[in-house]
Amino acid sequence: MLVAPVDPWSWFGPGRALGLDKHGGTSSLLFQSWFHSSGVLQSGPPQSGFFSPIDGVMLPAGTFSNRVAFITGGGTGLGRAMTTTLSQLGAQCVIASRKLDVLQHTAEEISSQTGNKIHAVQCDVRDPQAVSRCVDQMESQTGLPDVIINNAAGNFVCPSERLSPNGWKSITDIVLNGTAFVTLELGKRLIQNQKGASFLAITTIYAESGSGFVAPSASAKAGVEALYKSLAAEWGRYGHRFNIIQPGPIRTKGAFSRMDPTGAFEKLMINRIPTGRLGKPSEIANLAAYMSSSYASWMSGAVIRFDGGEYVSMAGEFNELRRVTPDQWTVMEAMIRSTKGS
Ligand SMILES: NC(=O)c1ccc[n+]([C@@H]2O[C@H](COP(=O)([O-])OP(=O)(O)OC[C@H]3O[C@@H](n4cnc5c(N)ncnc54)[C@H](OP(=O)(O)O)[C@@H]3O)[C@@H](O)[C@H]2O)c1
């Protein structure tokens, strides 16, 4: 007879017991805090060894020769990594954000490695006039771009009951309005010039599910995805493709200092990622380069989740059972087999 708690999830709570009595055919067993005391949680997932990142550039040299790429937020973090990869592949890049000194420093560093020109343009994407001036400057320096990556964003964790209208506005202005201003300004000029282009937006895995504590970001990123899917349908006739990458956690100073200021959540994140590690900036840069290249000319309206499996891992109701050891499965199997009727 089964004497374990009726709710199977309570088996997994700290300090709860799982037991079988002798009528179940197994001697009485007590499992106190199974996985909390298990080596898996203490040492980090061993499977990360199966999924080692490769740092090198994936596409053939010269893939972006004679191409111009415009990357918002290209001075730091993932934007910087994407700029580096595109520049290595021959693109002339234009990077734009608010801090001109950061952009100039990045531009000099990357172009001294790749030998390809990188232009730094100051632009606050929240301001449509500033976006228009930025595109004017780009047109005169490089011409209109072939590749546009909307990567700039702002975010911070905050209980929604503490959120001020300003907090809401500052995030949604950068993420949704900023992406819309950049995309519409460039789109209109490209259409006028009968020039095709690839547009890529960097969103997040919770654009789909929503997420507590980042409601402005979740709402704005969902809006960006709706914009890009809409334009994928509408502007294919002008030679424009629109795609989306939803990254999972990839360590950057900008993201991690505002999303995990104490560092406490990193281990939790890693433990729920089936590939057992965070992503690397160079990995998303290779994906972004592929999606922006002519190798992907049939890809439009695509939403690529790039998260080591984190999203599905959080979604599946029974996924916590991966913490059960083979011995524990033997016990559970006996319990299930010994159950008669319903
Ligand atoms: N890293 C992750 O784990 C992760 C996960 C999911 C999604 N993402 C997404 O990946 C993208 C890059 O994030 P990241 O991790 O690389 O963080 P990051 O280094 O902080 O990048 C954000 C960039 O946006 C720029 N920016 C902010 N406000 C702006 C404004 N008003 N106008 C123009 N540019 C502005 C910043 O430059 P300035 O300060 O100079 O303006 C900065 O370069 C973001 O869209 C983020 O939502 C990241």
Automatic annotation (TrEMBL):
> Is Oxidoreductase among the key words of this record?
yes
Keywords, A to Z, come to: NADP, Oxidoreductase
Q: What class of enzyme is it?
A: oxidoreductase
> Pfam families from the entry?
adh_short_C2
Q: Which GO terms describe its cellular component?
A: mitochondrion
Give the enzyme's EC designation: 1.3.1.124
Picking any one GO molecular function of the record gives: 2,4-dienoyl-CoA reductase (NADPH) activity
Role description: Auxiliary enzyme of beta-oxidation. It participates in the metabolism of unsaturated fatty enoyl-CoA esters having double bonds in both even- and odd-numbered positions in mitochondria. Catalyzes the NADP-dependent reduction of 2,4-dienoyl-CoA to yield trans-3-enoyl-CoA.
Family per record: Belongs to the short-chain dehydrogenases/reductases (SDR) family. 2,4-dienoyl-CoA reductase subfamily.
- The name of this protein is 2,4-dienoyl-CoA reductase [(3E)-enoyl-CoA-producing], mitochondrial
Organism, as annotated: Echeneis naucrates
Upper lineage is: Eukaryota, Metazoa, Chordata, Craniata, Vertebrata
